[in-house]
Write a structure and sequence with these properties.
Distance between the termini: 91 Å
CATH superfamily of the largest domain: P-loop containing nucleotide triphosphate hydrolases
Strand order of the largest sheet: 5-6-7-4-8-9-3-10
Helix content: 25-40%
Radius of gyration: 29 Å
CATH topology of the largest domain: Rossmann fold
Number of helices: 18
Strand content: 15-25%
Structural class: alpha/beta
C-alpha cells in the first residue's frame, strides 16, 4: 500500500494529479482502477515518449461496457491489452492476496509485454510500487499479491490456484483450447476474467464469440471496430475526397465514416502486403473479422439494415393440433418462435429445410412468411425426425391459415417429409413449376437461383426479417475459394435455406386449393400467453365447400 515516501512523491508532482489532497488521491486510487491509471501511471506512446496513461476512445468504450467476464474482439493496436494489464496491476497494488494471470500466445510476445508494458508501468508509477521481480511473477510486497505472466499452455492451472483475475491476450491465436478451462477451474468465487484478441479465422475463438453473442457463454461480447479509434484517421484529408468506391459508399452509409477515416483506410490497405487480411486485422463488423477464408454471399450493408428490424419473439413453445383447434404450449425450449400471430385474411407460406434429426447434426428449419406484409412472422428450428417434422409443419400450416408448405424434397431426408405431407394433405404441398416433383428440388442451378433471388429481396427490403438467428446464419454464409457457397466452419444454413425456399414460394404464390375454402376460418382467443392475446385455429366452417 502507499507509504509516506509515496505521498511525498505525489506532493512533488502537483501538475500530474487533480487538485485534491494526497489522502483523497490515495482513497480514490484504492477504489478506482481508471482513476489510478489516468492519474498515476505513464505509458510509452507510438513515438517512444513517456506520457500519462490517458484512456483512448476504444479503452473508454470498453470501460463503459465491461462486466466481470468479458470477451473483447478488437482491431490492431487499440490499447485494450495495455488497459487490462494496468487494471490488474492496480488490483495487485491496492487489494490484498490477489493472484493475477496474464497469458500471451508466444514466448516472444511474453517478453515484449513484460519488458515494454508491465515493467515500464510499474517503474514509472507516480505512486511507487514495492515489487519483487521474479522469473515469471511479480510480487507486490505490501499486499501479498502476485502477477504471473507466461505463455498459453506453459503452465497447468487447476483447483487450488486461487486465481482472482485473468487476462488472455490474443486468445484466437492460441495453439490449444485447453488453456481457458484450466484457468477457469483455478478461479476463486467472484474472479474477473477477460479475453482480448484480433480474429484468426474460423477457429475455437469464433465459436466462443458466437456462444457469447447468443447468451450461451458467461462472457460478454464487446466488439471494438477500427473506426472507433481516433488515431485511425488522416485529418488532413477531411473534406478532400471527391469520389468513393461502391464499398466506401456502403461504409459511409453504415458507419458514418469521415473523409479522414476513409483516407486512412485506403492508405492502410495500400500498404499491406496481404490486403485481403484488412477485414480480419481492422474489421468494421465482428462477422468480417472472422471471414479470413471467405467472403459473404449476402450484402453486409443490407444485413445491417435488416438487423435493425430483428426482434425477440413474442412467444416461444410448441403447437398442439387438437383437430378442432390448434393450441399453444409456451416453453423456453420450444422449437417454434413467433413474432406475429396469424391475421384473418392474410396469406402465408412455409419454406422448410429438412435434416436427419440426429442430435449434434444439422437442424430442420421452417420459415413462415406473411405475403400480405412481406415479413417473416415465425420460425421453427430444432432436431426432429423427418416424418415427425412433416406433422409439425402441418400443424404450423393449420395455425397460419392453411399456409402452403415447401420442404426441400430432394436431395436428402426431405423426401420422407414430403411423402408424409403428400399423404396427409397433398393440396398444401407446393411444387416448383420448373421440375416435375413436389416440394423444392435443390440442384446447383436452382440453389444459385434461390440464393441470389432472396439476396436481392433482402438487399431491396422486399422482405423483412425478424429472427436474429437467421441474420447470424446469413452473415456466416460465404463464397469459398472454389466459388461455391457454404456456411462458415462451425455454422449452419438451415434457416437460410428455409427462407430462400419460402421466398421462391412467395414469388410464384397461388392459394391452397383444398376441400374447405381457405380464409373462412373461425378465430377465437384462448386467453393470453405472456400478456399477448393468441388467436387459435378452430378449423373450417362446416358446410362451406369449394365447387
Amino acid at each position: 500500500m502507499p507509504d509516506d515516501e509515496a505521498k511525498s512523491r505525489i506532493a512533488d508532482t502537483p501538475k500530474t494529479l487533480p487538485p485534491i489532497s494526497e489522502e483523497e488521491t490515495f482513497k480514490r486510487c484504492a477504489t478506482s482502477d481508471v482513476f489510478f491509471i489516468q492519474n498515476c501511471l505513464q505509458i510509452v506512446n507510438e513515438q517512444g515518449q513517456l506520457v500519462p496513461f490517458v484512456l483512448r476512445r476504444p479503452q473508454r468504450l470498453y470501460v463503459e461496457r465491461r462486466t466481470n467476464y468479458d470477451y473483447a474482439l478488437k482491431s490492431r493496436k487499440e490499447g485494450i491489452s495495455s488497459f487490462f494489464i494496468a487494471s490488474d496491476l492496480w488490483a495487485c497494488a491496492f487489494k490484498k492476496n490477489q493472484h493475477c494471470i496474464l497469458l500471451a500466445h508466444t514466448k516472444d510476445e511474453v517478453k515484449v509485454m513484460l519488458e515494454e508494458r508491465v515493467k515500464p508501468l510499474i517503474k514509472n508509477s507516480i505512486i511507487p510500487l514495492d515489487v519483487d521481480f521474479r522469473s515469471s511473477e511479480i510480487i507486490f510486497k505490501q499486499t501479498n499479491s502476485r502477477y504471473y505472466i507466461g505463455t498459453a499452455g506453459s503452465r497447468k492451472f487447476g483447483r487450488g490456484s486461487d486465481i482472482t483475475r485473468y487476462h488472455l491476450s490474443e486468445y484466437a491465436h492460441y495453439e490449444t483450447t485447453d488453456v481457458l478451462p484450466g484457468i477457469e477451474e483455478g478461479c476463486v468465487d467472484g474472479a474477473i476474467g477477460r479475453l482480448e484478441t484480433t480474429a484468426n479465422g474460423e477457429n475455437f475463438a469464433k465459436t466462443l464469440w458466437d456462444d457469447a453473442k447468443s447468451g450461451r457463454s458467461k462472457y460478454k461480447p464487446i466488439f471494438l471496430p477500427w473506426y472507433c479509434a481516433e488515431k485511425y484517421c488522416l485529418p488532413e484529408a477531411e473534406g478532400k475526397i471527391l469520389s468513393l468506391s461502391e464499398e466506401e459508399k456502403k461504409l459511409r452509409e453504415a458507419f458514418n465514416l469521415t473523409d479522414g477515416q476513409i483516407a486512412w483506410r485506403r492508405e492502410k490497405i495500400r500498404g499491406m502486403s496481404r490486403p485481403e487480411l484488412f477485414q480480419q486485422e481492422y474489421p468494421e463488423t465482428d462477422h468480417q473479422a472472422f471471414l479470413s477464408s471467405g467472403r459473404m454471399v449476402f450484402d453486409w450493408i443490407a444485413l445491417l439494415r435488416q438487423e435493425q428490424k430483428c426482434q425477440k419473439p413474442v412467444w416461444r413453445g410448441r403447437l398442439v393440433d387438437l383437430e378442432y383447434k390448434v393450441d399453444l404450449e409456451p416453453s423456453d425450449q420450444g422449437s417454434l418462435r413467433v413474432w406475429k400471430v396469424p391475421q384473418q385474411g392474410h396469406e402465408y407460406v412455409i419454406g422448410a429445410d429438412v435434416a436427419e434429426g440426429i442430435e449434434g447434426g444439422a437442424y430442420s428449419a421452417g420459415c413462415v412468411l406473411d405475403l400480405d406484409l412481406n415479413e417473416q412472422v415465425a420460425e421453427w428450428h430444432g432436431h426432429i425426425a423427418p416424418d415427425l417434422f412433416a406433422e409439425a409443419l402441418l400443424t404450423l400450416s393449420k395455425y397460419y391459415n392453411n399456409a402452403r408448405i415447401a420442404p426441400e424434397s430432394w436431395p436428402g431426408p426431405g423426401e420422407v417429409t414430403c411423402s408424409h405431407l403428400l399423404e396427409a394433405d397433398a393440396a398444401r404441398v407446393w411444387s416448383d413449376l420448373n421440375v416435375d416433383k413436389p416440394g423444392w428440388v435443390t440442384t446447383s442451378k436452382s440453389k444459385q437461383r434461390m440464393i441470389h433471388q432472396v439476396g436481392a429481396a433482402i438487399r431491396d427490403l422486399e422482405v423483412v426479417l425478424r429472427s436474429p438467428d437467421l441474420l447470424s446464419e446469413l452473415k456466416s454464409y460465404v463464397y469459398t475459394e472454389s466459388g461455391t457457397m457454404e456456411p462458415s466452419t462451425g455454422t449452419f444454413t438451415d434457416r437460410v435455406i428455409a427462407l430462400a425456399i419460402a421466398w421462391q414460394m412467395a414469388r410464384s404464390y397461388s392459394p391452397v386449393s383444398s376441400t374447405y375454402s381457405r380464409g373462412l376460418h373461425s378465430f377465437g382467443f384462448s386467453g393470453k400467453v405472456g400478456g399477448l392475446s393468441i388467436p387459435t385455429w378452430h378449423g373450417p366452417k362446416l358446410g362451406i365447400r369449394e365447387e
